[in-house]
Amino acid sequence: MSTGFALHGFGESPEVALDDVPVRGTLPEWLTGSLIRNGPGTFQVGERRYRHWFDGLAMLHRFTIRGGRVSYANRFLETESYRIAREEGRIAYPEFATDPCRSMFARAMAVFEPQATDSAKVNIARVADHYLALAETPIQVEFDPETLRTVGVTGWDTSDFGRMTTVHPHLDEERHEAINLVTRYGAVSNYVFRRVDTTEAGLLHGDTFASRAVREPSYIHSFGMSERHLVIVEFPLVVNPISLLLWLRPYIENFRWKPGRGTRIHVFDRASGAHVRSVTADPFFAFHHVNAYDDEDGSVVVDLVAYDDASVIESFYLHRLSEPDVQIPPGTLRRLRVPLSGPHGRLHAEEISPTGIELPSIDYSRLNTSPHLRYVYGISVRSDRGFYDQLVKIDIETRTTVVWHEAECYPGEGVFVGRPERVAEDDGVLLSVVLDAVRGTSFLLVLDAATFAEIARAELPHPVLMGYHGQFYDDLLASDRPGQVLPAHGS
Ligand code: CO
Fold first, then answer.
1. Of 21, 52, 129, 147, which one has the greatest count of Cβ atoms within 10 A?
2. Is this model's pTM higher than 0.90 or not?
3. DSSP letter (8 states) at residue 68
4. How many angstroms separate the alpha carbon of residue 137 from the centre of ligand 1?
5. Domain ranges, residue 108
6. Tell me, what CATH number does 253's domain have?
7. Bridge partners of residue 24, in order along the sequence
8. DSSP element (H, E) containing 37
9. Ligand 1 centre and the CA of 285: distance in Å?
10. What is the total count of domains within the chain?
11. How far is the CA of 2 from the centre of ligand 1 (A)?
């Protein structure tokens, strides 16, 4: 069976609110809260189809678990992109790998008035009690976590245009700060760290506290943070900013793989923002950092899911994913040890496990920046062909892997939720929204995070397109409401 259907074999999901989703199995008593997931709600706009898995119109999903029961709601993010798609049936803004149809004149004008998509579909963050849908453009969209209605647009760095950011800000609850990396494109481009005080009401009005000039910026999807350092891993997938200004092709297609540059690692002091050191490693590419920590030997250790090159981006074009024998290059968990002083040669990332893994997740609230992190969860391709069809758990200590798999089922990101009184790191559950390709529906899978045995599943009556990232909030509970179906947008 073709695996591309996992992304676009179905029509778009209807907007619904379901008070009681049927549950098979028994949910743990302690498991209370909401999983908010983000991802594409449709790849079709009028007669046009988006081109790439990272395109599409944003849709939010909320699964609320309480008292052994599950409620669910979903809703398109009500942005300009969405409004124009619905009312005019056209793609209005450039996405990751899809551009609007524009005349040469319109393209030329875009140089003077560049427009960024507001279809923030990649991740979720809660900053200063505001819930945000995150995109790689500087535009972030606030939403009501209960109704999923759109509140308005905000941003990490919207002082002017010509910049991109990551959808993986680091949040430090003890220090009440959120940190993100912004790339500013120009004659001289800059990597800039922005820091937000999360106790402040002034949402996302942070300060710039570290920066580094760069001639050809790299495509960077996330960054590393240890107790004392911030780490930019600059892959040799780079762009001439002029090419972005002219915008003759979709965003990501302006980037070029230049392995001769190697992968450059820039370390900054987290407190002062001062540049500490830059070193070079063998060329590789990654979307996701997993963890970073300061080691006793004076180095910063950086774990990430790495690929030998950036061809994984090309494998996510929808026409490629539709091919029956689609091959997605497997990313693997690799470790970089960056010495902060003394002489060093060219660095090499050590492979921790040969198991393919993507959308890595950890017990972030307890173990981000910790040298003791042991378990990394993620999705993986079971054989060398096909789409992500299993969940994996890699043990960094024993370097072994545990797997969950079910025929014709395609799990999304695994989100770890720890039992509140846990001692063991993996005492908790892993939540994943799984597409069942035989039934044409999706379910919320609840695994015992320790054994990977299924505890329960909540079965939706419709499919959910393969999305990207979500977050679980144990204090977010939707109020009880009578059964209802949300009215379709605009009706
Ligand atoms: Co990501």
1. 52
2. yes
3. T
4. 13
5. 3-490
6. 2.130.10
7. 457
8. strand 33-42
9. 13
10. 1
11. 25
